[in-house]
Each structure stands twice: as structure tokens, then as C-alpha cells.
Write a structure and sequence with these properties.
The complex is a heterodimer. Helix content of chain A is about 40%, strand content about 15%. By secondary structure, chain A is of the alpha/beta class. Chain A has one domain: Rossmann fold, CATH 3.40.50. The longest helix of chain A is centred in the C-terminal third of the chain and has 19 residues, at about 195-210. Chain A starts with 6 loop residues before the first helix and ends with a strand. By secondary structure, chain B is an alpha/beta fold. Chain B has 2 domains: about 5-205 and about 225-240, Rossmann fold; about 245-355, Rossmann fold (3-Layer(aba) Sandwich). Chain B has helices at about 10-20, 35-45, 60-70, 85-100, 125-130, 145-165, 175-180, 220-240, 260-275, 290-300, 315-325, 340-355, and strands at about 5-10, 25-30, 55, 75-80, 105-110, 140, 165-175, 180-185, 210, 245, 255, 280-285, 285-290, 305-310, 330. In chain B, the strands form 3 sheets. Chain B has a 7-stranded mixed sheet with strand order 3-2-4-5-7-6-13, with helices on both faces. In chain B, strands 10-12-11-14-15 form a 5-stranded mixed sheet, sandwiched between helices. In chain B, strands 1-8 form a two-stranded antiparallel sheet. In chain B, strand 2, helix 2 and strand 3 (about 55) form a beta-alpha-beta unit.
């Protein structure tokens, strides 16, 4: 074992510059190394902590890799059936309008099986925040094709690459949501660099503010990686994401309120 | 405040009773023959009076998941639909049962399978009493036989739902939903402002976080949960059986029927007795829990039983299990949306038990 000289003198409470956010629980994250979920959870937890939202926040977790999201953030949670989170969140917010209500959904959940619930919740302008993790693949079930899988991209159910002639085109749900009058703030971000983490955090903070002002549905897409599903190292997957995902899913605001 | 007398459809009575019972939210999707429920609620606009939320969802699937969300907040929430729509709700109902959430689901049954017919039927008995969705679970199932009961069972449903943290289904049919009868309406009850301790109301520093879920990947814990559910269902079987008897004291032949069929069978009992056949009627009011014990007792006193249902024979299976071979049990029923006539029932009784 390597002994670092003087390490014990350095690790002291008064020297700490970074700590676990209070809202994060002690549970060990179940995500693969390099996955964007952990970072996104952390940002969400920071916002809830900084904005003093713990007693107001009710999250709706999806089916997919983040199905156990309720293990990690110390707030009240409801676990929705696959794709139904926006419907579940609709009722939570309508019946408890003073609470901060959000869903956290993957691409299969939000853009395939939950297409109707997503579009109609946004079209009604439900006063909720939808966080949409788009990694172009079904991670939890082991790397199957998602509605957002890129043309030619290989997955276990598109082993020769996604053939758009028979398998359809990647669905740009965020663009669809931005076109609905009920949506208020729609943006696409990522969490693969510190600069992008900051931007995503800023976007979530904005959405919190808009929900307090009853402005309508806010949707934040986070284009993310899936090293295991994509069969790449974390570094390779981030590079691949920049070169392939971002051209199809360009980062930036799709709908911004006039302030 | 005095009880108020009105002439109403069964569907309207459910809607009015929901407002008066202090229901917090209704989430529905139109389908014949129950659409009057959401129409009545939209017109009554209780958001402005009691604060009750009424929302037309994009589908039955969304509606039942809204019920899940609302119930998870500890609110009194309900939905209603008819057979094909109830099939769509089954995923959500299974999750609600798995998360042990209280709610009311009204099914105004129409004939099936498939799109079937819009006319009344009782062909959703299996789906309602045996689970319906995936997994080992039961709903508490109440079967109204009048417009009055459609109104009264709203409050009863919520009492049972919250007592047992279990979804309750009111299993009506197109006849009771559509017909008009006089109904005594109860005075308005204020909505409950407090939430049960398990509800997701936002985590204060004074308690652990509340999680509404039906997921547990640990097989041992999941089995323990299944065992816990079974114990709950046993308690419900023990305490909540409801039924009504009509001329059973000296009966030699017992008709077993619920809902619309039970009303038809009251007349059949009278007609049979006019012909010298001592018939009686047992009307299950709860279909789960089923009045198994009472039917078994009566099997020791009668010569045979006839299960009368507007279906191909579904409840008859529970009658057979209750009787456990003591006496012959048969089924009689019309399908396709046809309401059985009292005369047909008597003819069936005679042909099956007496001959000719």
C-alpha cells in the first residue's frame, strides 16, 4: 500500500472544499462507471438543497436504470409504471399545487412507451418539471434499441445498426414538446464536462423558479452516455456522444420564456 | 341537514355522491355507458365549491396513473370506465394494489370481449374479483343493484379503501348506470385536509422519506410482502362480507345473483313461488370477499343452486367452490348485452332441477 506523506494532516474538516450534498442518501449508486445518471442526481440534489425544497419536493421515478432513484435522494418519491410518470406527476401537482413536482425519465420511458403521457401532460401545461435522460439506448434491460437510437447505431435489437427504413427514425421528443403551447421552458443540455454540468444546473434552477410561478411544463433533456450499452470506455463514450449524438440532438435552449 | 331526494341515473348518482363524500380528485376518459359520470362532474365544476379536481385524461391508462399519483398523496381519488377501458387500466390497477394505495374504480360493465357492445353485461366478474392485472392481488369489489347503492357505495368504497389501503372496485353495469331511480343523497362532507402518515406530501425533517412503490428485487422481501397481502385479504374475507337474502328461510332452490340480475331474480322468486316452487335469492353485495361461508351453509338446506349472471358463467365458479359438491349448481345467463327476463330464469330453474 502506498503511503501518502502528510495525508492525515490534509484530511481535516476545516480543509474540505467539497462534500456530499445533504439530500444525497448514504446508498451506493448502482450506475456503471462513467454514466451520466450519478452526476445528474447530484445536481438535482444540490438544487433541492440550495433552494430549500426538501419538504416540498415530490419526485416521480421511472422504469429503467434510474428506477431506484428514490434510494439516492432524501425526499418523498413515487415510483411510476413504465412511461406513466407525467400522468402520475399531473395528479400529484394538481392535488398539491404548493409542492415542487418533477419526473425523471429515460428515453424509452419518455419517448416510446410514455409518448402519450409526455405529450399530453406538456400540452395541458402541467406545472411540473420533466428531466429527460437521453442516452439513445435501453440501459436497464441490457442495450436494446431506443426511440432515440441514432441511424446505423448498433444495439442488441438492432445488431446490424438501426435501419431507418424498417425501424424508423430517432424521435426528437424535445422538439415536439417545444412546439406545444403548454410547455414553457424547454432545453437540451449535457453533464459530460464541468462547464455543461454548470449549464444543466442553471437550467434546473430556472425550472424550479418557473414552477413556483405556475408557468407551465418545463422539460430539460440531458443528452447522456451509456458506456456499458454502447460498449465503450467512459472517455470513448463521451467522445462518441460529442461526435454523434450532439449533431442529431444539438445542445441549447429550444424554448425560452421572455423574461 | 336533511337527506335530499332526487331522480337520477346511476352514473349521475355516483358523480354527485363523489362530490358530497368529499372526494379530492376524479380522473377519467369517456366511454359508453358511463360517460355521464365525467359529464356530470365537469358541469358541476366542484373545483369552485369543494375544491375537488376533475380532469379528462388522454386515455384510461393515463387516468388510472393519475389515480395512482393522487392516491400516493393520501387523497381520496377515483376513476370510472366501462369494460374495454377497465382492461386498459389493469396495468395501473396492479401497481396500485402493489403499492397498497386506496382508491375507487367504477366499472359500468358492457358486453365483450373486445369492443363488444355498449349494452349492459356482467362479463367482467373474473377480471374484477380474481385480480385483473398481473400478480397476486385482489380488489375489494362492491356490486350495487340500484341507483341508491351506486350513490351509497362511493363513501363505503373510500372507507374500505383507506381502512385496508386497498383499491376498491364498484362493479356496476350499463343497466344500473343508465336507469333513473329516486335516490336519497347524503349531506356534503368536507374534504379531509390531513394526509395519512405514508403519503407523499413532501418530507419534513421529522420523518423518513415516504416512497410509493411496488418494486422489490429482493425475492425474500417480495415474498414477505406477498404474504402480508394475503393476510390482508384474509382479514377482508373475515370482516367485510356483505350480502342480502330474499325469501331464503324456506327455500328449496337458491338463486345467486348480483347487480341487475339480482333485481330480475327477485321477480323470478315471486313467479316461481306462484308456481309452487320454493325459490330464494342470495345477492352478494361484496363479490370480493365472496359470501362463501353463507352459501356453503345454505347448500345444506336447499336442493340446488342457480347462478344467474349476464355472462357465460363466471360467478358460478365461486358458487361451486362455496357449495363444494353438496348440491348441484348450474349457471343461467344471457350475453351480448341482453338483460335476462324473470320468466327465463324460472324456466331455467325448472328445466335444470324439476324437469320439463
Amino acid at each position: 500500500m502506498v503511503e501518502f506523506s502528510g495525508i492525515k494532516e490534509i484530511i481535516k474538516p476545516e480543509n474540505l472544499v467539497y462534500k456530499k450534498t445533504n439530500i444525497m442518501t448514504e446508498n451506493i449508486l448502482s450506475y456503471c462507471p462513467g454514466c451520466g445518471h450519478g452526476t445528474t442526481h447530484r445536481i438535482l440534489a444540490e438544487i433541492i438543497d440550495e433552494e430549500g425544497l426538501q419538504s416540498e419536493a415530490i419526485g416521480v421515478s421511472p422504469v429503467g436504470c434510474s428506477v431506484f432513484l428514490y434510494y439516492y435522494l432524501d425526499i418523498d418519491w413515487q415510483e411510476a409504471a413504465h412511461g406513466r410518470a407525467p400522468a402520475v406527476a399531473t395528479a400529484i401537482k394538481r392535488l398539491q399545487p404548493e409542492k415542487f413536482v418533477f419526473t425523471y425519465q429515460g428515453d424509452g420511458d419518455l419517448a416510446a412507451i410514455g409518448t402519450a403521457e409526455t405529450i399530453h401532460a406538456c400540452n395541458r401545461g402541467e406545472n411540473i418539471l420533466i428531466i429527460f435522460i437521453n442516452n439513445g439506448i435501453y440501459g436497464m434491460t441490457g442495450g436494446q434499441m431506443a426511440p432515440t437510437t441514432l441511424p446505423g447505431m448498433k444495439s442488441s435489437t438492432s445488431p446490424y445498426g438501426r435501419d431507418v427504413k424498417t425501424m424508423g427514425y430517432p424521435l426528437k421528443m424535445t422538439e415536439i414538446v417545444a412546439s406545444l403551447p403548454g410547455s414553457y421552458y424547454v432545453t437540451r443540455q449535457s453533464v459530460h464536462t464541468p462547464a455543461n454540468v454548470k449549464k444543466t444546473k442553471k437550467a434546473i434552477r430556472k425550472a424550479v423558479k418557473y414552477q413556483k410561478l405556475n408557468k407551465g411544463t418545463c422539460l430539460i433533456e440531458i443528452v447522456s452516455n451509456c458506456p456499458s450499452g454502447w460498449k465503450m470506455t467512459p472517455v470513448q463514450s463521451n467522445k462518441w456522444m460529442e461526435e454523434n449524438m450532439f449533431p442529431y440532438y444539438p445542445l441549447g435552449d429550444l424554448k425560452t420564456p421572455e423574461e | 341537514m336533511e337527506k335530499e331526494l332526487r331522480l337520477m341515473k346511476g352514473n349521475e348518482a355516483v358523480a354527485e355522491a363523489a362530490i358530497r363524500a368529499g372526494v379530492d380528485g376524479y380522473f377519467g376518459y369517456p366511454i359508453t355507458p358511463q360517460t355521464e359520470i365525467i359529464e356530470y362532474l365537469m358541469e358541476a365544476n366542484p373545483a369552485g365549491t369543494t375544491g375537488m379536481i376533475v380532469l379528462q385524461a388522454e386515455s384510461e391508462v393515463a387516468a388510472i396513473n393519475m389515480v395512482y399519483g393522487g392516491a400516493g398523496c393520501g387523497k381520496k381519488v377515483m376513476t370510472s370506465s366501462s369494460s374495454p377501458g377497465i382492461s386498459l387500466k389493469q396495468e395501473g390497477i396492479s401497481y396500485i394494489a402493489g403499492a397498497e394505495l386506496p382508491c375507487l374504480i367504477v366499472n359500468v360493465v358492457r358486453g365483450g370481449p373486445g369492443l363488444g357492445t355498449i349494452q349492459p353485461a356482467q362479463s367482467d366478474y373474473f377480471q374484477s374479483t380474481k385480480g385483473g392485472g398481473h400478480g397476486d392481488y385482489h380488489l375489494i369489489v362492491l356490486a350495487p343493484a340500484s341507483v341508491q347503492e351506486m350513490a351509497d357505495f362511493v363513501e363505503l368504497s373510500f372507507e374500505l379503501a383507506f381502512k385496508y389501503r386497498n383499491p376498491v372496485m364498484m362493479l356496476s353495469d350499463g343497466a344500473i348506470g343508465q336507469m333513473m331511480e329516486k335516490v336519497y343523497l347524503k349531506p356534503h362532507k368536507a374534504r379531509v385536509k390531513t394526509a395519512p402518515e405514508w403519503a407523499t406530501t413532501g418530507k419534513p425533517t421529522t420523518r423518513e422519506r415516504n416512497i410509493i412503490t411496488s418494486l422489490d428485487l429482493d425475492s425474500n422481501r417480495q415474498e414477505l410482502f406477498n404474504i402480508k397481502l394475503l393476510a390482508k385479504y384474509d382479514e377482508i374475507r373475515e370482516k367485510e362480507v356483505r350480502f342480502e337474502e330474499f325469501q331464503c328461510e324456506d327455500a328449496e332452490y337458491l338463486l345467486v345473483a348480483y347487480g341487475t340480475s339480482a333485481r330480475v331474480c327477485q321477480k323470478s322468486v315471486q313467479l316461481a313461488r306462484e308456481q309452487g316452487i320454493k325459490a330464494g335469492l342470495l345477492r352478494p353485495i361484496t363479490l370480493f370477499p365472496f359470501p362463501t361461508k353463507r352459501i356453503n351453509e345454505l347448500a345444506g338446506k336447499v336442493k340446488g343452486m342457480l347462478s344467474v349472471e349476464m355472462s357465460a358463467g363466471q360467478m358460478v365458479e365461486d358458487v361451486l367452490l362455496s357449495v363444494n359438491g353438496k348440491v348441484p349448481v348450474y349457471h343461467f345467463g344471457r350475453m351480448g348485452g341482453i338483460v335476462t327476463t324473470p320468466e327465463e330464469v324460472v324456466e331455467s330453474l325448472k328445466s335444470k332441477f324439476i324437469g320439463g
